[in-house]
Amino acid sequence: MTLDQDEVTERRQKADAPKTRPAPSPAKPAHAPAVVHKKQSLFGIYLLLFLILAFSAAAGFWLWQQNQQLRNELYGAKSEIENLDHQLLAADVSANEQGQTVEQTLKTHASEIRKLWGVSYDRNRKTIAENGEAVDLLKQQIKTLKSDLSTQAKRIAHQDGAFSDLEAAYNKLLPTVAELDALTKVLGDQVNSQEVKLQNQAAQLSSAEKTLNEQTGTTQALGLSIESVTQEVNRLQKQLNTVEQKANASNASDLTQVQQTLKQQQEAIQSSDAFRSQVNAEIIRLRKQINQLMLEQQLNAQ
Predict the structure, then answer these.
(1) What is the 3-state secondary structure (H, E, C) of 52-118?
(2) pTM (2 decimals)?
């Protein structure tokens, strides 16, 4: 720290001056020191300027560091952007290659599907044609069977008239039986028993008539069986006429023969019912086969 030239001169003058005691003034005491007027120092200003310069230098250094940091970050961002551009280009190229690969794969699959469809159609075409022919054949068989059933229905209607004639003959037989009962007690008991049996047979014949009317189908064998029944009925009617003509000469053996004939007639009717059940079962089986063939044809068409 240096002193100004004025301060040095002033101090020298004070040192050279004689040391005399001035007279004490009335206003001030004799022992009061002399007042020295000093010049104001510039140290504070220099210190302030130094602090400002130091702060400015520190601020400049800090700004330079921030600038360098921002520049480095900018360079890093540019590098990342370039890397992203390269990655996007690579991804675009890869996506194009994958798209071409997928398109080629789809074309290959479409070609294979067309080939498989053609092979499947060629393989199943014969089967479909055979199934169609089988269905047509079954339809023709069903049509023929319906025609046969219609014919059998007509025959059954004709047999209905024969049953009516048999019932009329039975009604005619009742007075004759009553007369025979009046002639002899033993023969009357037998005739009464036969009458009860004949009534039961009439009820069975009526039930058989209803069953035959409800029947939807039968076969030629059933027609032959019914014709056999008709012959038995005609034969029975002839026997009844013979019994009526020979009422006085009839005996227990004739009545037993009539009873056996009616029993045979009942067995023939039961046999016809069993055969009708077999025919119905066969029709149901044919319908199931037709439905199965139609279902297989639909599946092959799909």
Answers:
(1) HHHHHHHHHHHHHHHHHHHHHHHHHHHHHHHHHHHHHHHHHHHHHHHHHHHHHHHHHHHHHHHHHHH
(2) 0.23
